[in-house]
Amino acid sequence: MMTVEEAVTGRRSIRAFLPKPVPRELIERVLRIAGRAPSGSNVQPWHVWVLQGAARDEIVAEAVARYDRNELAQREYDYYPVKWREPYLARRRACGWGLYGTLGIGRADKSKMHAQHARNYAFFDAPVGLIFSIDRDLGRGSWLDYGMFLEAIMVAARQFGLETCPQAAWLSFHDLLQRRLGIPPDQTVVCGMSLGYPDAGEKVNTFTPERMKVEEFVTFVEELKD
Protein backbone atom coordinates (compact mmCIF):
# COMPACT_ATOMS: atom_id res chain seq x y z
CA MET A 1 0.00 0.00 0.00
CA MET A 2 1.35 3.44 -0.90
CA THR A 3 2.20 5.99 1.75
CA VAL A 4 0.35 9.29 2.05
CA GLU A 5 3.39 11.01 0.54
CA GLU A 6 3.33 8.65 -2.45
CA ALA A 7 -0.41 9.07 -2.89
CA VAL A 8 -0.16 12.85 -2.95
CA THR A 9 3.07 13.40 -4.85
CA GLY A 10 2.34 10.68 -7.41
CA ARG A 11 -1.06 12.08 -8.33
CA ARG A 12 -1.38 13.66 -11.75
CA SER A 13 -4.22 14.54 -14.08
CA ILE A 14 -4.83 11.43 -16.17
CA ARG A 15 -6.12 12.04 -19.70
CA ALA A 16 -6.38 8.49 -21.04
CA PHE A 17 -8.24 5.68 -19.31
CA LEU A 18 -8.85 2.00 -19.90
CA PRO A 19 -12.41 0.85 -20.72
CA LYS A 20 -12.32 -1.38 -17.63
CA PRO A 21 -15.50 -0.83 -15.56
CA VAL A 22 -15.29 0.48 -12.01
CA PRO A 23 -17.60 -1.42 -9.62
CA ARG A 24 -20.24 0.73 -7.95
CA GLU A 25 -19.18 -0.47 -4.50
CA LEU A 26 -15.64 0.79 -5.18
CA ILE A 27 -16.92 4.21 -6.28
CA GLU A 28 -19.00 4.38 -3.12
CA ARG A 29 -15.99 3.40 -1.03
CA VAL A 30 -13.84 6.17 -2.51
CA LEU A 31 -16.61 8.72 -1.94
CA ARG A 32 -17.16 7.43 1.60
CA ILE A 33 -13.49 7.96 2.38
CA ALA A 34 -13.52 11.43 0.81
CA GLY A 35 -16.64 12.26 2.77
CA ARG A 36 -14.43 12.43 5.86
CA ALA A 37 -12.87 15.62 4.47
CA PRO A 38 -13.13 18.55 6.88
CA SER A 39 -15.66 21.35 6.46
CA GLY A 40 -16.43 24.39 8.57
CA SER A 41 -19.04 23.50 11.23
CA ASN A 42 -19.26 20.12 9.46
CA VAL A 43 -21.72 21.50 6.87
CA GLN A 44 -20.42 19.06 4.19
CA PRO A 45 -21.51 21.20 1.21
CA TRP A 46 -20.93 18.61 -1.51
CA HIS A 47 -23.38 16.97 -3.91
CA VAL A 48 -22.01 14.31 -6.29
CA TRP A 49 -23.61 13.05 -9.50
CA VAL A 50 -22.10 9.78 -10.73
CA LEU A 51 -22.34 9.00 -14.46
CA GLN A 52 -21.82 5.50 -15.83
CA GLY A 53 -23.07 3.40 -18.71
CA ALA A 54 -25.75 4.75 -21.01
CA ALA A 55 -26.29 7.92 -18.95
CA ARG A 56 -22.61 8.80 -19.22
CA ASP A 57 -22.56 8.04 -22.94
CA GLU A 58 -25.58 10.27 -23.65
CA ILE A 59 -24.05 13.21 -21.79
CA VAL A 60 -20.74 12.70 -23.60
CA ALA A 61 -22.38 12.53 -27.03
CA GLU A 62 -24.37 15.72 -26.50
CA ALA A 63 -21.47 17.64 -24.96
CA VAL A 64 -18.98 16.69 -27.68
CA ALA A 65 -21.46 17.58 -30.42
CA ARG A 66 -22.15 20.95 -28.84
CA TYR A 67 -18.45 21.62 -28.40
CA ASP A 68 -17.82 20.88 -32.08
CA ARG A 69 -20.57 23.41 -32.93
CA ASN A 70 -19.05 25.90 -30.45
CA GLU A 71 -22.30 26.00 -28.47
CA LEU A 72 -20.82 26.59 -25.05
CA ALA A 73 -22.85 28.11 -22.23
CA GLN A 74 -21.58 31.12 -20.32
CA ARG A 75 -19.94 29.87 -17.16
CA GLU A 76 -21.75 30.72 -13.95
CA TYR A 77 -18.57 31.67 -12.16
CA ASP A 78 -15.00 32.61 -13.11
CA TYR A 79 -12.79 29.66 -12.35
CA TYR A 80 -9.79 31.46 -13.83
CA PRO A 81 -8.76 35.12 -13.56
CA VAL A 82 -10.67 37.48 -15.82
CA LYS A 83 -7.34 39.12 -16.63
CA TRP A 84 -4.17 37.03 -16.42
CA ARG A 85 -0.95 38.42 -14.95
CA GLU A 86 2.44 37.10 -13.98
CA PRO A 87 3.52 34.75 -12.56
CA TYR A 88 0.23 32.93 -13.21
CA LEU A 89 0.19 33.58 -16.94
CA ALA A 90 3.61 31.96 -17.39
CA ARG A 91 2.56 28.92 -15.33
CA ARG A 92 -0.62 28.54 -17.35
CA ARG A 93 1.27 28.70 -20.63
CA ALA A 94 3.90 26.25 -19.43
CA CYS A 95 1.18 23.79 -18.46
CA GLY A 96 -0.76 24.13 -21.70
CA TRP A 97 2.18 24.02 -24.08
CA GLY A 98 3.79 21.30 -22.01
CA LEU A 99 0.74 19.10 -22.49
CA TYR A 100 0.51 19.81 -26.21
CA GLY A 101 4.25 19.32 -26.59
CA THR A 102 4.01 15.90 -24.96
CA LEU A 103 1.42 14.99 -27.59
CA GLY A 104 3.42 16.48 -30.45
CA ILE A 105 0.81 19.18 -31.09
CA GLY A 106 2.34 22.38 -32.44
CA ARG A 107 1.06 25.88 -31.78
CA ALA A 108 -0.38 26.10 -35.30
CA ASP A 109 -2.25 22.77 -35.03
CA LYS A 110 -5.61 24.28 -34.15
CA SER A 111 -7.60 21.23 -35.24
CA LYS A 112 -5.50 18.92 -33.05
CA MET A 113 -5.85 21.30 -30.10
CA HIS A 114 -9.61 21.30 -30.63
CA ALA A 115 -9.70 17.50 -30.72
CA GLN A 116 -7.61 17.20 -27.56
CA HIS A 117 -9.78 19.70 -25.66
CA ALA A 118 -12.89 17.87 -26.83
CA ARG A 119 -11.67 14.81 -24.95
CA ASN A 120 -12.63 16.63 -21.76
CA TYR A 121 -16.24 16.08 -22.73
CA ALA A 122 -15.66 12.37 -23.23
CA PHE A 123 -14.23 12.20 -19.70
CA PHE A 124 -11.01 11.15 -21.47
CA ASP A 125 -12.72 7.78 -22.07
CA ALA A 126 -12.95 7.10 -18.33
CA PRO A 127 -15.93 4.82 -17.55
CA VAL A 128 -17.01 7.07 -14.68
CA GLY A 129 -17.78 10.76 -14.82
CA LEU A 130 -18.33 12.72 -11.61
CA ILE A 131 -20.16 16.04 -11.54
CA PHE A 132 -20.07 18.18 -8.41
CA SER A 133 -22.57 20.83 -7.36
CA ILE A 134 -23.06 23.15 -4.41
CA ASP A 135 -25.97 25.12 -3.00
CA ARG A 136 -25.90 28.63 -4.40
CA ASP A 137 -26.47 30.35 -1.06
CA LEU A 138 -23.33 28.91 0.58
CA GLY A 139 -20.35 31.18 1.12
CA ARG A 140 -16.71 31.19 0.11
CA GLY A 141 -15.72 29.02 3.05
CA SER A 142 -17.86 26.16 1.77
CA TRP A 143 -16.08 26.40 -1.59
CA LEU A 144 -12.76 26.06 0.24
CA ASP A 145 -14.19 23.00 2.00
CA TYR A 146 -15.18 21.61 -1.38
CA GLY A 147 -11.57 21.77 -2.56
CA MET A 148 -10.52 19.55 0.33
CA PHE A 149 -13.26 17.08 -0.57
CA LEU A 150 -12.14 16.94 -4.21
CA GLU A 151 -8.52 16.40 -3.20
CA ALA A 152 -9.61 13.60 -0.87
CA ILE A 153 -11.33 11.83 -3.78
CA MET A 154 -8.28 12.14 -6.01
CA VAL A 155 -5.92 10.79 -3.35
CA ALA A 156 -8.24 8.07 -2.01
CA ALA A 157 -8.84 6.70 -5.51
CA ARG A 158 -5.15 5.93 -5.96
CA GLN A 159 -5.19 3.33 -3.19
CA PHE A 160 -7.37 1.15 -5.43
CA GLY A 161 -5.42 1.64 -8.65
CA LEU A 162 -7.80 4.33 -9.85
CA GLU A 163 -6.80 7.76 -11.14
CA THR A 164 -8.64 10.99 -11.85
CA CYS A 165 -8.68 14.22 -13.77
CA PRO A 166 -10.49 17.21 -12.27
CA GLN A 167 -12.19 19.24 -15.00
CA ALA A 168 -13.28 22.87 -14.99
CA ALA A 169 -14.17 22.38 -18.68
CA TRP A 170 -17.59 21.03 -17.72
CA LEU A 171 -18.58 24.48 -16.47
CA SER A 172 -19.20 25.39 -20.12
CA PHE A 173 -22.04 22.85 -20.19
CA HIS A 174 -23.63 23.47 -16.80
CA ASP A 175 -26.98 23.96 -18.53
CA LEU A 176 -26.77 20.51 -20.13
CA LEU A 177 -25.78 18.91 -16.82
CA GLN A 178 -28.51 20.64 -14.86
CA ARG A 179 -31.16 19.70 -17.42
CA ARG A 180 -30.18 16.08 -18.04
CA LEU A 181 -29.06 15.17 -14.50
CA GLY A 182 -31.81 17.01 -12.69
CA ILE A 183 -29.46 19.25 -10.72
CA PRO A 184 -31.81 21.63 -8.84
CA PRO A 185 -31.81 25.31 -9.86
CA ASP A 186 -30.68 26.29 -6.36
CA GLN A 187 -27.37 24.48 -6.97
CA THR A 188 -24.48 25.47 -9.23
CA VAL A 189 -22.03 23.14 -10.94
CA VAL A 190 -18.58 23.27 -9.31
CA CYS A 191 -16.62 21.08 -11.75
CA GLY A 192 -16.42 17.60 -13.23
CA MET A 193 -13.96 14.76 -12.75
CA SER A 194 -12.94 11.68 -14.73
CA LEU A 195 -12.45 8.49 -12.72
CA GLY A 196 -11.14 5.13 -13.86
CA TYR A 197 -8.13 2.92 -14.41
CA PRO A 198 -5.27 4.74 -16.19
CA ASP A 199 -3.97 3.63 -19.56
CA ALA A 200 -0.26 3.35 -18.79
CA GLY A 201 0.60 3.00 -22.46
CA GLU A 202 -0.69 6.44 -23.46
CA LYS A 203 1.98 9.13 -23.71
CA VAL A 204 -0.36 11.86 -22.51
CA ASN A 205 -0.29 10.29 -19.05
CA THR A 206 3.43 10.94 -18.72
CA PHE A 207 2.89 14.69 -18.56
CA THR A 208 3.31 16.28 -15.15
CA PRO A 209 3.67 20.07 -14.85
CA GLU A 210 6.40 21.33 -12.56
CA ARG A 211 5.59 22.51 -9.07
CA MET A 212 7.12 25.39 -7.17
CA LYS A 213 9.89 24.75 -4.69
CA VAL A 214 8.95 25.17 -1.05
CA GLU A 215 11.09 28.27 -0.71
CA GLU A 216 9.12 29.91 -3.51
CA PHE A 217 5.79 29.87 -1.69
CA VAL A 218 6.66 29.63 2.01
CA THR A 219 7.75 32.37 4.39
CA PHE A 220 9.04 31.30 7.79
CA VAL A 221 8.36 34.09 10.29
CA GLU A 222 10.88 34.15 13.15
CA GLU A 223 10.54 37.78 14.15
CA LEU A 224 7.42 39.93 14.06
CA LYS A 225 7.43 43.44 12.68
CA ASP A 226 6.65 46.33 14.99
CATH-defined superfamily of the domain at 14-77 and 120-204: NADH Oxidase
Q: From the helix content, strand content and strand pairing, which structural class follows?
A: alpha+beta
CATH architecture of the domain at 14-77 and 120-204: 3-Layer(aba) Sandwich
What would CATH call the class of the domain at 14-77 and 120-204? Alpha Beta
How many beta-strand elements?
Answer: 4
Tally of DSSP helical segments? 8
Helix fraction by DSSP (H/I, runs of at least 4): 25-40%
What is the helix/strand order? HHEHHHEHEHEH
Write down the Rg: 18 Å
Q: Which range does the strand content fall in?
A: 5-15%
Strand ordering within the main sheet: 1-2-4-3
Please summarize the sheet with the most strands. 4 strands, antiparallel
Shape: globular
Segments where pLDDT lies below 50 for 5+ residues?
A: none
What is the fold-level CATH name, i.e. the topology of the domain at 14-77 and 120-204?
NADH Oxidase
N-end to C-end Cα span: 49 Å
Mean pLDDT across the residues is 97
